[in-house]
Specification:
Layout: H1 10-17, E1 21-26, H2 46-58, E2 61-64, H3 69-76, E3 82-85, E4 90-92, H4 98-103, H5 106-111, E5 113-114, E6 120-122, H6 128-142, E7 149-152, E8 157-160, H7 169-180, E9 186-191, E10 194-199, H8 205-215, E11 224-230, H9 236-244, E12 249-253, E13 264-266, H10 269-289
Parallel strand pairs: 1-2, 1-11, 2-3, 11-12, 12-13
Antiparallel strand pairs: 3-4, 4-6, 5-6, 7-8, 8-10, 9-10
Helix pairs in contact: 2-10, 6-7, 8-9
């Protein structure tokens, strides 16, 4: 009741969207693909890929994932989308005049260093040597724990323990904590059967949403409706931004009821696909009316 289904509330959402430019922001794991035991096997279905491709024809759409930007692009493979990896810390800005856009933001001047690719901005670039050093330490310290997997997402690290025997969960957690004692500029957060290590910087998925909106020229307009769909704790930062600014809707993907900053909910990726297809049908009907 508190976070109604985005499918049963679809008419309410689209009534509000009339006359507005909808911008879509999507998480990947658990949103477009199912949560699986081995993160390397988190593939989206061909039907989901088709739904995402179709929705991107009508609305600016971006993926904001905890995975590295290169990895999530490899998994999705759609050039129609914009991509932000490492929880928004590795972002390709979709405008040509992004240099002037970024230069007048003090927080971006402090945190961003332009990469070799045009319009590529990475607020945590100075942490790369430390991230790589900790990655090697984690590999070494967890190699004897059966089922553990350490994933290098460029500007953050993920220690997966979904396949680890439950009696060893505290062991792997303690080893990660022990390593991080020597790295005060890194922080530990918890996801779904994963420990995530990130630089301590003033940046998150919510800030990435705002930046992408600005890159697209949609930030200071009243006729824009951002919709963010995600399933994990890091997505709450994006939900919170949309709620606090009273603009757009957050949609939590979860099979069980839970507290969230989102406005609506969907149960699983299959419902996400239905929602995306519904958006395409709605947009087509609006075009037909026009």
């Amino acid at each position: 009741k508190k976070y109604p289904s985005a499918l049963t509330s679809f008419e309410q959402i689209t009534n509000y969207a009339k006359g507005k430019k909808v911008a879509l922001f999507l998480d990947y794991d658990g949103t477009l693909s199912p949560i699986v035991d081995n993160p390397d096997n988190a593939f989206m279905s061909s039907a989901m890929r088709s739904a995402v491709k179709d929705v991107a024809k009508f609305f600016p759409a971006a993926i904001i994932s905890g995975r590295s930007r290169d990895k999530v692009y490899e998994l999705i493979g759609l050039k129609e989308l914009f991509y932000a990896g490492s929880h928004g810390m590795d972002l390709a800005c979709p405008v040509k005049n992004s240099n002037s856009l970024f230069s007048h933001h003090s927080c971006i001047r402090r945190n961003y260093k332009q990469g070799k690719e045009p319009n590529l901005f990475q607020p945590a670039s100075k942490f790369l040597p430390i991230i790589n050093e900790v990655f090697k330490c984690l590999i070494d310290k967890t190699k004897d724990i059966k089922g553990s997997k350490v994933e290098n997402n460029k500007f953050c690290l993920s220690v997966h323990y979904r396949l680890v025997d439950e009696k060893n969960w505290t062991v792997i957690a303690q080893r990660v904590h022990d390593i991080l004692k020597n790295y005060p500029h890194l922080q530990l957060t918890h996801g779904r059967k994963v420990l995530e290590i990130r630089p301590i910087i003033d940046w998150n998925k919510g800030k990435a949403v705002n930046l992408l909106l600005e890159c697209l020229g949609l930030n200071d307009r009243d006729d824009v409706l951002p919709i963010y769909i995600g399933d994990d704790r890091t997505d709450e930062d994006a939900f919170k931004v949309l709620r606090e600014l009273n603009r757009g809707y957050g949609i939590l993907v979860s099979s069980v009821p839970k507290e969230t900053e989102a406005h609506y909910s969907l149960k699983d990726p299959s419902e996400v696909m239905v929602f995306l297809r519904s958006l395409v049908r709605w947009k087509n009907s609006q075009i037909a009316l026009d």
